[in-house]
Amino acid sequence: MKIAVVILNWNGKSLLEQFLPSIIAYSEEAQIYVADNASTDDSISFVKNNFPSIKIIVNTENGGYAKGYNDALKHIKADVFCLLNSDIEVTKNWLPPIMKAFSQDEFTAIIQPKILDFKNKAYFEYAGAAGGFIDKYGYPYCRGRIFESIEKDLGQYNDNSNIFWATGACLFIRSSVFNKLNGLDEHFFAHMEEIDLCWRAKNQGYSIKYVGASEVYHVGGATLNNQNPKKTYLNFRNSLFMLTKNAKGFLFGIILVRMCLDGIAGIKFLAELKPKHTLAIIKAHFSYYKQLNRLLKQRKTTKHRMKYFTRTSIVFDYYIRKKKNYTSL
């Protein structure tokens, strides 16, 4: 089984300098690529001069995570793509457990390893932790992370498990499935597009898995951190995008409740003296309205929609029932 590890880069010389050595050292089974999103720094010349074994793909524009990978992966021939953030440190033998899981089940389309915090390696990392799920209203949460509550890694997720979504920080996908799904939805630009991809795979009968024997460490927020209102805008807008495209059930009711919950989040941001984040939510909703017609057309192309949630509202569970970690749900 041929695997390609593909690192999307945008002005990330310092990250490449820090993390490429571990990737090269521990990825003997793979061909490594750096896909550059029209960087303006000298990161590509740095890779050419210091890591000649790495193949480089240069995109003509910065189309974000979604378009960046779509454009790059057209030039790569492999059985499995690993979409790897540039701020990831991999560990010894991180690839064999992943490849074994793919070989054991032909319907396994996407796999995520254990994602731990590079800055505090005893804890899970926000973006993916031990595999993701969403509630009825599209709010994501993980084994090991619910909202801002992060669990310590005590071996509680040292398993192989079916999950609903895998994080885009380190996502393995069969190339045949990626192509069948027409890749990532470029309207998302960045954030939530991996959940949308996993959801579309699920709706076509594929499974998504977490493999705890494979570990990586993620810095997180290296490109766009949680304090940036643009990230708030993309997360709230793109959640509405993926719900409209994929959710089974009475869509108007789901979206109405979601928007009311978004309104409460906006009030919370105001109370925390973060008015720019409240404004970002308002802008996200207006952007959603503008693109609703396109989204409804995309929705019509989905022939089968599976039940996508086990929790009706993770917001209620977390803030009202005080369920702060996955194991308590």
List keywords for this structure.
about 325 residues; alpha/beta; Spore Coat Polysaccharide Biosynthesis Protein SpsA, Chain A; ten-stranded mixed β-sheet; two-stranded antiparallel ribbon; about 40% helix
Level-2 CATH architecture of the largest domain? Alpha-Beta Complex
Weakly predicted, low-confidence segments:
none
CA radius of gyration: 19 Å
Derived from helix and strand composition plus strand pairing, the structural class reads alpha/beta
Distance N to C terminus: 38 Å
Strand content: 15-25%
* Multimeric organization: single chain
Q: Can you identify the CATH superfamily of the largest domain?
A: Spore Coat Polysaccharide Biosynthesis Protein SpsA, Chain A
Summed up, the domain count is 2
State the CATH topology of the largest domain: Spore Coat Polysaccharide Biosynthesis Protein SpsA, Chain A
| Secondary-structure element order, N to C | EHEHEHEEHEEEEEEEEHHEHHHHH
What is the β-strand count?
14
Task: Name the average pLDDT.
Answer: 96
Work out the helicity level.
25-40%
Taking the sheet with the most strands, its summary is: 10 strands, mixed
Shape: globular
Highest-level CATH class of the largest domain: Alpha Beta
Tally of DSSP helical segments: 11
Give a brief rundown of this model:
With 329 residues, this protein is an alpha/beta fold. It folds into 2 domains: 3-218, Spore Coat Polysaccharide Biosynthesis Protein SpsA, Chain A; 229-328, no CATH class.
